[in-house]
UniProtKB/TrEMBL annotation:
<dbReference type="GO" id="GO:0005513">
    <property type="term" value="P:detection of calcium ion"/>
</dbReference>
<keyword id="KW-0325">Glycoprotein</keyword>
<feature type="transmembrane region" description="Helical">
    <location>
        <begin position="20"/>
        <end position="40"/>
    </location>
</feature>
<protein>
    <recommendedName>
        <fullName>Calcium-activated potassium channel subunit beta</fullName>
    </recommendedName>
</protein>
<dbReference type="GO" id="GO:0008076">
    <property type="term" value="C:voltage-gated potassium channel complex"/>
</dbReference>
<dbReference type="GO" id="GO:0015269">
    <property type="term" value="F:calcium-activated potassium channel activity"/>
</dbReference>
<keyword id="KW-0812">Transmembrane</keyword>
<comment type="similarity">
    <text>Belongs to the KCNMB (TC 8.A.14.1) family.</text>
</comment>
<dbReference type="Pfam" id="PF03185">
    <property type="entry name" value="CaKB"/>
</dbReference>
<keyword id="KW-1133">Transmembrane helix</keyword>
<keyword id="KW-0407">Ion channel</keyword>
<keyword id="KW-0813">Transport</keyword>
<dbReference type="GO" id="GO:0015459">
    <property type="term" value="F:potassium channel regulator activity"/>
</dbReference>
<comment type="function">
    <text>Regulatory subunit of the calcium activated potassium KCNMA1 (maxiK) channel. Modulates the calcium sensitivity and gating kinetics of KCNMA1, thereby contributing to KCNMA1 channel diversity.</text>
</comment>
<comment type="subunit">
    <text>Interacts with KCNMA1 tetramer. There are probably 4 molecules of KCMNB per KCNMA1 tetramer.</text>
</comment>
<keyword id="KW-0472">Membrane</keyword>
<keyword id="KW-0406">Ion transport</keyword>
């Protein structure tokens, strides 16, 4: 038995609709690549941190204390008080004095507090 092949020819309107659909899909994919290279690439390059050699210039307590909640297991929870410490460093690349911060979030939330030396004070308790 031979298979019957049905040849279907699209009308001109259907043909234009198919071409338009394919053009829109292809242009969408191309625009995603263009936006990816033009918009995301600089943003990702800004996130890359470079290593720097820093020398500690001074360390001082600013007299404030913060409360830290910690957990070390299912039955181990508590709070501790830690002093706020400011650490000034000299960046060897730019030869500039700067206040050391743990991360950008800490810099934005409390710019005058440099670092929280939890381990140092936890070991002394």
């Amino acid at each position: 038995m031979a298979k019957l092949r049905v040849a279907y020819e699209y009308t001109e309107a259907e043909d234009k609709s198919i071409r338009l659909g394919l053009f829109l899909i292809i242009s969408g994919v191309v625009s995603l690549f263009i936006f990816g290279f033009c918009w995301l690439s600089p943003a990702l390059q800004d996130l890359q941190a470079t290593a720097a050699n820093c020398t500690v210039l001074s360390v001082q307590q600013i007299g404030e204390v913060f409360e830290c909640t910690f957990t070390c297991g299912a039955d181990c929870r508590g709070t501790s008080q830690y002093p706020c410490v400011q650490v000034y460093v000299n960046n060897s690349e730019s030869n500039s004095r700067a206040l050391l911060h743990s991360d950008e979030h800490q810099l934005l939330t409390n710019p005058k507090e440099a670092t929280r030396l939890r381990r140092l004070y936890s070991n002394q308790e």
